[in-house]
Records
---
Amino acid sequence: MCSEASVPLIMSSPLPQTDSHVELTLLAGGSFTATANFLHAGAAATPFTMFNWAFHISHPSGRQIVWDVGNTSNPDDYTPWVRQHMFPLGPFAPPEPIEQQIKRRTGVPPEGVDTVIFSHAHWDHCRPIRALFPRATGYFGPGTAEFCGAGHFSATGEELADVPWDGNFFHPEHRTESWEALRGPWKRFGPFERAMDFLGDGTMWVIQAPGHMGGNLACAVRIEGGEWVLLASDCCHSRGLLEGKYDIATWCNPDGSQGALHVDIPAAKDTMAKLRVLRGMGVHLALAHDVSWVEEGTDPVLMGLLDQDLKEWVEEGLKTGRLP
Ligand SMILES: [Zn+2]
């Protein structure tokens, strides 16, 4: 008889009912070069193109929201730590700056964007927005600032080389960015216990999704036709991990500590289990770094978000290296 003790029981509730929807636009958020051994336990150090998706969400009320801002190849957009440790990986800007993609595809100019929600504070999702979207307020998940501390500025404003977090957001005196932590109220969304009905009409739920780093978020949006898409960002880094084909990679840091892409692996696994529950309920999962659905082409809802430029961008990147 098979033991069920290792299978966590996940409570879920039906998805909220609403007749409204948002317009969801998929955006190329740049890319960088990663190696498979940082994602999948036991994998070789095979290089591949780590794509990076971002999104624009437009609501009938006129609200214009950006979900993550992706990469640029401009060193000035990043902290000294990112420049030193991450720039050897690229990062490669998208073929068209993200604000221009939004303008071209939706007609919304940069100053029309009122909100930027960061799924989390890592460099490939988050960078200063004051010049990019001058009227926008940034939002992070609860606990982000506590996790990141003051960021890469010292008390005197001098740049610290060993802190990845951007003091333009998190330093009490030297911050340049206008942002807030999301405050809820938090309600259940399917299997997730804490989600915020961000626009008040049930079309967009910003979800606390623990595991990757402090304050990590996902976002469920209801699009035209009534389908739900989950912008799952870094809750999970590949389809192989989501489907249990691989385990989460860990490694030994130079200081002897254990490294992993998630700060809390049990919590990340619990979040991934909840993603699987949502997928079982018919929700379409769009992870920030996954292009397997483009290669397979079998999900008509996600494929409906692609245009020719995005398809070509993915094809080009896959030529440079694909996740084994
Ligand atoms: Zn990421």
---
Amino acid sequence: MGLYEGIKDVAKVVQQADNVELYRKLLDLSSQALDMQAEIATLQKENEELKNELHKKKRILRHKGIYITLEGEQSGIVYCSSCYGKDDTFIQMFDYDEECYRCPVCKVFAYKNDQ
Ligand SMILES: [Zn+2]
């Protein structure tokens, strides 16, 4: 039985007892419980996102060039270490030419040979 169904069942019993004060308190507590349930769902989602972010950070491989890669990720995907250092964001760089990657956001170049 979920929280909402449980509250409805208790509300029926309290209503039959014909106690207005008890019913009012039940409604107040029910409202608080439902708010807390929503808050828990929000925190669980936020916690999951933070765990995923932490897991990703642990996989960072730094290179001499201004780029980073992620351990276990398919090769050839590189991220801008400048943007990561500034905003903690993973901005995928693109192949600019045979020698360099380039960040589409901060426009920095990274030499592919500086591994
Ligand atoms: Zn960048």
